[in-house]
Amino acid sequence: MKLSEIKEVLKTVEAVNFELPDGTFVPEYFHVTEVGLVTKNFIDCGGTVRKETVVNFQLWDANDYEHRLKPQKLIHIIELSEKVLGIEDNEIEVEYQNTTIGKYDLDFNGKNFTLLNKQTACLAQEQCGIPSDKPKVKLSQLNTDNANSCTPGGGCC
Q1: pLDDT for 3-32, tens place per residue?
Q2: Residue 142 placed within a domain
Q3: Which of 89, 69, 68, 88 is CA-nearest to residue 77?
Q4: CA–CA gap between residue 154 and residue 26 (Å, rounded)
Q5: Digit-coded pLDDT (tens) for 110-138
Q6: Is residue 49 assigned to a domain?
Protein backbone atom coordinates (compact mmCIF):
# COMPACT_ATOMS: atom_id res chain seq x y z
CA MET A 1 0.00 0.00 0.00
CA LYS A 2 1.29 3.43 -0.90
CA LEU A 3 1.15 6.50 1.30
CA SER A 4 -1.55 8.12 -0.84
CA GLU A 5 -3.69 5.00 -0.48
CA ILE A 6 -3.58 4.93 3.33
CA LYS A 7 -4.53 8.59 3.48
CA GLU A 8 -7.58 7.91 1.29
CA VAL A 9 -8.61 4.91 3.41
CA LEU A 10 -8.17 6.88 6.63
CA LYS A 11 -10.77 9.39 5.37
CA THR A 12 -13.37 6.59 5.24
CA VAL A 13 -12.84 4.63 8.47
CA GLU A 14 -13.92 5.32 12.04
CA ALA A 15 -11.07 3.43 13.72
CA VAL A 16 -7.49 2.47 12.93
CA ASN A 17 -7.01 -1.28 13.45
CA PHE A 18 -4.04 -3.38 12.38
CA GLU A 19 -4.53 -7.12 11.89
CA LEU A 20 -1.47 -9.36 12.12
CA PRO A 21 -0.88 -12.23 9.68
CA ASP A 22 -2.09 -14.77 12.27
CA GLY A 23 -5.49 -13.02 12.56
CA THR A 24 -4.81 -11.35 15.91
CA PHE A 25 -4.78 -7.57 16.25
CA VAL A 26 -2.25 -5.02 17.39
CA PRO A 27 -3.79 -3.79 20.68
CA GLU A 28 -6.16 -0.91 20.02
CA TYR A 29 -4.15 1.33 22.36
CA PHE A 30 -1.05 1.25 20.13
CA HIS A 31 0.94 4.37 19.26
CA VAL A 32 2.54 5.29 15.93
CA THR A 33 5.94 6.27 17.29
CA GLU A 34 7.65 6.91 13.95
CA VAL A 35 6.78 7.77 10.39
CA GLY A 36 10.00 7.89 8.43
CA LEU A 37 11.71 7.55 5.13
CA VAL A 38 14.00 4.52 4.89
CA THR A 39 16.39 4.17 1.97
CA LYS A 40 18.35 0.99 1.48
CA ASN A 41 21.33 1.05 -0.89
CA PHE A 42 22.67 -2.42 -1.60
CA ILE A 43 24.27 -4.71 -4.10
CA ASP A 44 22.55 -7.96 -4.99
CA CYS A 45 24.31 -11.29 -5.38
CA GLY A 46 24.60 -10.70 -9.13
CA GLY A 47 26.56 -7.48 -8.64
CA THR A 48 23.75 -5.02 -9.47
CA VAL A 49 23.59 -1.93 -7.28
CA ARG A 50 20.04 -1.27 -6.13
CA LYS A 51 18.17 1.35 -4.11
CA GLU A 52 14.90 0.76 -2.28
CA THR A 53 12.90 3.47 -0.51
CA VAL A 54 9.90 2.90 1.76
CA VAL A 55 7.84 4.91 4.21
CA ASN A 56 8.23 3.29 7.62
CA PHE A 57 5.49 3.26 10.26
CA GLN A 58 6.52 2.01 13.68
CA LEU A 59 3.71 0.74 15.90
CA TRP A 60 4.27 0.51 19.64
CA ASP A 61 2.19 -1.17 22.32
CA ALA A 62 2.69 1.24 25.22
CA ASN A 63 0.27 -0.32 27.69
CA ASP A 64 -1.44 3.07 27.55
CA TYR A 65 -4.83 1.39 27.77
CA GLU A 66 -6.93 4.54 27.27
CA HIS A 67 -5.09 5.67 24.11
CA ARG A 68 -6.89 5.41 20.74
CA LEU A 69 -5.33 6.76 17.56
CA LYS A 70 -8.07 8.35 15.46
CA PRO A 71 -7.85 8.27 11.65
CA GLN A 72 -7.64 12.07 11.37
CA LYS A 73 -4.73 12.16 13.85
CA LEU A 74 -2.81 9.60 11.78
CA ILE A 75 -3.46 11.65 8.63
CA HIS A 76 -2.02 14.66 10.46
CA ILE A 77 1.09 12.68 11.49
CA ILE A 78 1.56 11.48 7.89
CA GLU A 79 1.13 14.97 6.42
CA LEU A 80 3.59 16.46 8.91
CA SER A 81 6.11 13.74 8.01
CA GLU A 82 5.63 14.42 4.29
CA LYS A 83 6.22 18.14 4.82
CA VAL A 84 9.18 17.94 7.20
CA LEU A 85 10.98 14.93 5.68
CA GLY A 86 10.01 15.42 2.03
CA ILE A 87 8.39 11.99 1.91
CA GLU A 88 6.97 11.02 -1.48
CA ASP A 89 4.28 8.49 -2.37
CA ASN A 90 6.25 5.34 -1.59
CA GLU A 91 5.18 1.90 -0.39
CA ILE A 92 4.59 1.58 3.35
CA GLU A 93 6.48 -0.83 5.56
CA VAL A 94 5.20 -1.35 9.10
CA GLU A 95 7.40 -2.27 12.04
CA TYR A 96 5.77 -3.92 15.01
CA GLN A 97 7.36 -5.76 17.90
CA ASN A 98 5.81 -9.05 18.83
CA THR A 99 8.53 -11.45 20.03
CA THR A 100 11.02 -9.48 17.90
CA ILE A 101 10.69 -6.50 15.60
CA GLY A 102 8.82 -7.63 12.53
CA LYS A 103 8.57 -5.77 9.24
CA TYR A 104 5.36 -6.07 7.29
CA ASP A 105 3.78 -4.91 4.06
CA LEU A 106 0.47 -3.11 4.50
CA ASP A 107 -2.92 -3.74 2.91
CA PHE A 108 -6.56 -2.94 3.70
CA ASN A 109 -9.32 -5.58 3.68
CA GLY A 110 -12.28 -3.19 3.63
CA LYS A 111 -12.46 -2.91 7.42
CA ASN A 112 -8.97 -3.23 8.91
CA PHE A 113 -5.42 -2.57 7.86
CA THR A 114 -3.67 -5.90 7.44
CA LEU A 115 -0.01 -6.56 8.10
CA LEU A 116 1.38 -8.95 5.50
CA ASN A 117 4.49 -11.04 6.00
CA LYS A 118 7.39 -9.82 3.89
CA GLN A 119 9.33 -12.36 1.84
CA THR A 120 12.97 -12.54 0.81
CA ALA A 121 13.93 -13.25 -2.78
CA CYS A 122 16.97 -13.49 -5.00
CA LEU A 123 16.95 -10.44 -7.27
CA ALA A 124 19.53 -11.86 -9.68
CA GLN A 125 18.34 -15.43 -10.25
CA GLU A 126 19.61 -15.52 -13.84
CA GLN A 127 23.12 -14.64 -12.62
CA CYS A 128 23.12 -16.92 -9.58
CA GLY A 129 22.50 -20.17 -11.39
CA ILE A 130 19.02 -20.60 -9.96
CA PRO A 131 17.10 -22.59 -12.55
CA SER A 132 13.90 -21.17 -13.90
CA ASP A 133 10.74 -23.01 -12.96
CA LYS A 134 10.12 -26.15 -14.95
CA PRO A 135 6.93 -26.08 -16.98
CA LYS A 136 4.15 -27.99 -15.31
CA VAL A 137 2.61 -30.69 -17.46
CA LYS A 138 -0.61 -32.52 -16.74
CA LEU A 139 -0.25 -36.29 -16.87
CA SER A 140 -3.21 -36.40 -19.23
CA GLN A 141 -1.21 -34.33 -21.74
CA LEU A 142 1.73 -36.71 -21.93
CA ASN A 143 2.24 -38.54 -25.20
CA THR A 144 0.62 -41.95 -24.88
CA ASP A 145 2.55 -43.47 -27.82
CA ASN A 146 5.34 -44.51 -25.49
CA ALA A 147 3.09 -45.36 -22.56
CA ASN A 148 3.58 -49.12 -22.94
CA SER A 149 7.08 -49.13 -24.44
CA CYS A 150 8.70 -50.32 -21.25
CA THR A 151 7.86 -54.00 -21.03
CA PRO A 152 9.51 -56.80 -19.14
CA GLY A 153 12.66 -57.77 -21.00
CA GLY A 154 12.46 -54.64 -23.16
CA GLY A 155 15.69 -53.25 -21.73
CA CYS A 156 14.24 -49.94 -20.62
CA CYS A 157 14.53 -50.51 -16.88
Answers
A1: 999 999 999 999 999 999 999 999 999 999
A2: no
A3: 69
A4: 66
A5: 999 999 999 998 888 888 777 776 667 77
A6: yes
